[in-house]
Design goal:
Layout: H1 3-12, E1 16-17, E2 23-24, H2 40-45, E3 56-63, E4 69-71, E5 79-82, H3 83-95, E6 100-105, H4 123-133, E7 139-144, E8 158-160, E9 166-168, H5 170-187, E10 191-194, H6 201-211, E11 218-225, H7 232-238, H8 258-270, E12 274-278, H9 284-293, E13 298-302, H10 304-315, H11 321-335, E14 339-342, H12 345-352
Parallel strand pairs: 3-5, 3-6, 3-14, 6-7, 7-10, 10-11, 11-12, 12-13, 13-14
Antiparallel strand pairs: 1-2, 4-5, 8-9
Helix pairs in contact: 3-4, 4-5, 5-6
C-alpha cells in the first residue's frame, strides 16, 4: 500500500461518534472543504449568512430651507436635505426597495434646552408630516436626542454642580426626551430611537407614548452606545459637536463588554422593542453576546467613521468599495445583527437588485 492510499484509508476510519451514534469520519484527504467553494453556484448554495435589502435602515439628515441638498464633506455621497428634497429622495429609494429610514434633524435655531427637538414645528416633525402627505409607507424611525438641538452640543440639558463643574442633568433630560418622542409619534413616526444614553429614558419614553395613546409606536433603543472616535464625521453632518468636554460621562467606555450587557438588559426591561449596538465594526463581540442572550431584534449602527474610512480608502484605490461594504455588512449579520443602520443602504439596495 503506497503512502497516499494509506492516508486515505486512515482518514476514512471512524474516529468518533455523533450524538446519534453513527461513526464520524474526519481529516484530509477524505474531507476537503474546498469542494463546496469550487464555483460561485456552490458557494451561494451553502452560504450561511445573507445580506438583504430588508435588513437595512438608511440614516438621513434633514435641514431647513427649500431645494437644499448640501454635500457633507467628511462623508462623500451623503447630504443634508431640506424637507422637499428629502421627500423626493425617500420616494425614490423606497421605490428601489428600501423599507426603513432613520431621520436626524438639523434645526434652524438652538438653545440650552434643545427646544426644537420637541417643538410641533421642529424640522423632524415637519419632515414626518411631509413624508406622510406624500404617501410614503416606509418605516419612519426618528432619532431622539438633544445634541443636534442644544447650543452646547450635549445630549441633554446641562447643570452646574456644587463644585462649579458642568454636567448633563440625567433626569431633567429624560423628561425632554420623552416629550420629543411623543411629538415624533404625533407627526407620523413608526418608531422612535433614543440615542442619548441617559439612564431610564426608555422607560420614560414608553410611559409617555402609552399615556399619549401611542402604545403601538415602537422603541429602537441605542442600548449599548460607546463613546467612540468613529462619530467624528457625523458631528459635521449634524452640527452636534460638544462645545465643552466630551460625552464620556454618559456614553459607554469602549473597553467595557460586561457593562454593555447590563445596559441592554435595562433597556429590555424598560420596554425596548429593538436594541442597538453602536458603533458596529469593532463591536462584533458585543453584538454576538447580546444575540446569545436575547431573542428580540438586534440592530447595529455602521457609523459615519466606518463609512468614511472605506470611502477614503476606495477613493485612493486601496480597496474595492463594493466588496468591502458587502463583507463588512455581512460580517455584522453573521455576528448576530438582524438590522443594520448604514449610509450605504441605497447603494446596497441597488447592488442587490443587480445594479452597479
Amino acid at each position: 500500500m503506497n503512502a497516499r492510499a494509506a492516508a486515505v484509508r486512515a482518514a476514512r476510519e471512524p474516529r468518533a461518534k455523533s450524538e446519534y451514534g453513527e461513526p464520524l469520519m474526519s481529516g484530509y484527504p477524505a474531507t476537503r472543504l474546498r469542494r463546496l467553494r469550487r464555483t460561485p453556484v456552490l458557494r451561494d448554495l451553502v452560504r450561511e449568512t445573507v445580506l438583504r435589502v430588508d435588513d437595512l435602515i438608511m440614516p438621513l439628515f434633514v435641514c431647513p430651507g427649500q431645494g437644499v441638498m448640501r454635500p457633507i464633506a467628511a462623508m462623500p455621497g451623503q447630504f443634508q436635505f431640506s424637507v422637499d428634497r428629502l421627500v423626493e429622495h425617500v420616494q425614490g429609494w423606497a421605490a428601489g426597495g428600501l423599507k426603513a429610514f432613520l431621520l436626524f434633524g438639523i434645526p434652524s435655531t438652538k438653545d440650552a434646552a434643545g427646544s426644537e427637538a420637541y417643538a410641533e414645528s421642529g424640522i423632524v416633525q415637519e419632515a414626518l408630516r411631509a413624508l406622510r402627505r406624500a404617501g410614503v409607507t416606509a418605516c419612519l424611525i426618528t432619532d431622539v436626542c438633544l445634541c443636534e438641538y442644544t447650543d452646547h452640543g450635549h445630549c441633554g440639558v446641562v447643570r452646574r454642580g456644587p463644585s462649579g463643574a458642568l454636567s448633563v442633568d440625567n433626569d431633567a433630560s429624560v423628561q425632554l426626551l420623552a416629550r420629543a418622542a411623543v411629538s415624533h409619534a404625533q407627526a407620523g413616526a413608526d418608531m422612535v430611537a433614543p440615542s442619548d444614553m441617559m439612564d431610564g429614558r426608555v422607560g420614560a419614553i414608553r410611559a409617555a407614548l402609552d399615556e399619549a395613546g401611542f402604545d403601538e409606536i415602537g422603541i429602537l433603543a441605542y442600548a449599548a452606545k460607546f463613546a467612540s472616535a468613529m462619530y467624528g464625521p457625523f458631528r459635521e453632518a449634524a452640527g452636534s459637536a460638544p462645545q465643552f468636554g466630551d460625552r464620556r460621562g454618559y456614553q459607554m467606555d469602549w473597553a467595557n463588554g460586561r457593562e454593555a450587557i447590563r445596559e441592554v438588559a435595562l433597556d429590555v426591561a424598560e420596554g425596548a422593542d429593538i436594541v442597538m449596538v453602536k458603533p458596529a465594526l469593532g463591536y462584533g463581540d458585543i453584538i454576538r453576546a447580546v444575540r446569545e442572550r436575547w431573542d428580540l431584534p438586534i440592530a447595529a449602527y455602521n457609523v459615519s467613521g466606518e463609512y468614511s474610512m472605506i470611502k477614503a480608502a476606495a477613493a485612493r484605490g486601496w480597496l474595492d468599495e463594493r466588496a468591502a461594504v458587502e463583507e463588512t455588512l455581512t460580517g455584522l449579520r453573521r455576528a448576530g445583527a438582524d438590522l443594520i443602520v448604514t449610509y450605504w443602504a441605497a447603494d446596497v439596495a441597488r447592488w442587490l437588485a443587480g445594479g452597479n
